Amino acid sequence: MKCVDDFRLRLGSTEVVPIMIGGMGVDISTPEMALAAVRMGGIGHLSDAVMVDTADRYFKKHFTRDKMRANMASMNKVDKSDVRFNLGVVEEATRLHVASAMEAKRGHGLLFINMMEKLTMNALRETMQTRMIAALDAGVDGITLAAGLNQNSFHLVQDHPRFRDAKMGIVVSSARALQIFIRRNAKLNRLPDYVIVEGPLAGGHLGFGMDWAKFDLKTIVAEVQAYLKKENLDIPLIAAGGIFTGSDAVGFLEDGAAGVQVATRFTISRECGLPEATKQAYLAAVEEDIEVNMQSPTGYPMRMLKKTPAIGQGVRPNCEMYGYLLENGKCEYIDAYEHEIKLQPDREKLSVKEKLCLCTHMRNYDVWTCGHNTYRLKDTTRRLEDGTYLLPSAEHIFRDYQFSKDHQILLPE
Q1: Measured between alpha carbons, how far is residue 239 from residues 34, 112, 219, 392 in Å?
Q2: Mapping DSSP to helix (H, G, I), strand (E, B) and coil, where does residue 303 land?
Q3: How confident is the prediction along the chain (413 residues), in pLDDT tens digits per residue?
Q4: In a designed cystine with 366, which of 70, 73, 309, 346 is the match (CB 3.0 to 4.6 A)?
Q5: Which of 259, 379, 362, 360 is nearest to 315 (CA)?
Q6: CA 313, CA 310: separation in Å to the nearest integer?
Q7: What are phi and psi of 34, to 5 degrees?
Q8: Is the peptide bond before 260 cis (omega within 30 degrees of 0)?
Q9: Distance (Å, whole) CA 172 – CA 197
Q10: Strand pairing of 204-205 and 259-262?
Q11: Where are the domains of the chain?
Q12: Which of 47, 371, 398, 367 lies closest to 241 in space, CA to CA?
């Protein structure tokens, strides 16, 4: 039986191990995790989710505090149209984070950044363009456009000197989504360098409705492959969502996928940015602890642990401090919060069950998003005498994907 190392992913003239670690925000995919994949000859992702706050922690800045002070006048308003990000700060935060990681890069792999297009930031076009340009200026090897694919994002950087040099890919959950993107970008004469096809078992936000269980990754991958063949398009396809073992990955590679993207198993790695207690909660989870709900204010279903601390919390909207999901001054969490204020005048005990304040809760690691196979994580490591689980290194997990066979999982020492 073959292993993943028997295959290679070719992106232009570059050849890498066909394993890509997904970009999980907020700084769950730390530079240390992403760079481990690069050292091993694969692809690692940073994430630009809540990047301004991440830069504060990494580089001792006060960007978030300054944003709050600049927008204090909107504090008690329901309409947050006046809340704005300083584009110079967005640029600096992104550039610092990417440049620092690129400077630390070792090995023959590639370092990408996952850019969540659903981070509308009350000025989608301007902030998205700023983030993309900053990452390209900082030398990132590639940009993956995800989470609410904007069909015009390539246009935002078409004049950048690295537009055709850096790798640029997209995440889709259907052949139709890819078809629309290709059609709308035809005039640029610039195809995506890769397309990540994400199935319904992925973690976090899903590209499906609440009928997600009716779909499966193998079928979607086959449909995308058929479309690419019909249109004679040579775009490497990366399968993602529910690929838990090296043998799972080999199955897709043998069926023609160029590579796989994996993430769930890396959430419990030592390098992962999640707090220790959260990692242990993932490891202790059983299948019944995992649900797909509509708690996200993005309008997309989201997979998470039922015990996620954010559910039912009634935090005041922190748009002046964060506000990454604001669109024309609005957010579904603000609406849910204001509705509950009318029903529950006691703000100290306020519970908002309909939606999460995703910015605040993600920043505080109170949203325990996870992949469908999270309940299997306990089978990938050892339980210690104190009842907790040993956390493997990202390198160990990567190697297990790369070299394991027969659906076996190599346990860490």
Answers
A1: 18, 17, 11, 24
A2: strand
A3: 899 999 999 999 999 999 999 999 999 999 999 999 999 999 999 999 999 999 999 999 999 999 999 999 999 899 999 999 999 999 999 999 999 999 999 999 999 999 998 899 999 999 999 999 999 999 999 999 987 666 789 999 999 999 999 999 999 999 999 999 999 999 999 999 999 999 999 999 999 999 999 999 999 999 999 999 999 999 999 999 999 999 999 999 999 999 999 999 999 999 999 999 999 999 999 999 999 999 999 999 999 999 999 999 999 999 999 999 999 999 999 999 999 999 987 777 899 999 999 999 999 999 999 999 999 999 999 999 999 999 999 999 999 999 999 999 999 98
A4: 309
A5: 360
A6: 5
A7: -60, -40
A8: no
A9: 5
A10: unpaired
A11: 4-274+379-403
A12: 371
Query: Which of 297, 274, 268 lies closest to 374, judged by CA?
Result: 268
Give 261's strand partners. 20, 240
Tracing tokens 């990132």 back to the chain, one arrives at: 140
Among 1, 35, 37, smallest CA distance to 246 is for: 1
Q: What are phi and psi of 305, to 5 degrees?
A: -75, 140
Specify the residue for token string 């009634």.
Answer: 314
Tokens encoding 94: 């992104």
| Parallel/antiparallel/unpaired status of strands 204-205 and 194-198 | unpaired
Closest CA to 200 of 174, 232, 181, 226: 174
Q: What is the per-residue DSSP string for 238-302?
A: EEESS--SHHHHHHHHHTT-SEEEE-GGGGGSTTSSS-HHHHHHHHH--GGGEEEES--TTSS-E
18: which residues sit within 8 A by CB, 6+ positions away? 4, 7, 8, 9, 42, 249, 253, 258, 259, 260
User: Given the DSSP bridges, would you call strands 290-293 and 302-305 parallel, antiparallel or unpaired?
Assistant: antiparallel
Give the count of beta carbons closer than 10 Å to the beta carbon of residue 342: 7
> What is the distance between the alpha carbons of residues 401 and 250, in angstroms, rounded to a whole number?
9
φ/ψ region of 275 (left if φ > 0, alpha if ψ in -120 to 50, else beta) reads beta
As assigned by CATH, the class of the 4-274+379-403 domain is: alpha beta
Does an H or E element contain 204, and which? Answer: strand 204-205
Question: Which residue do the tokens 């504090």 mark?
Answer: 75
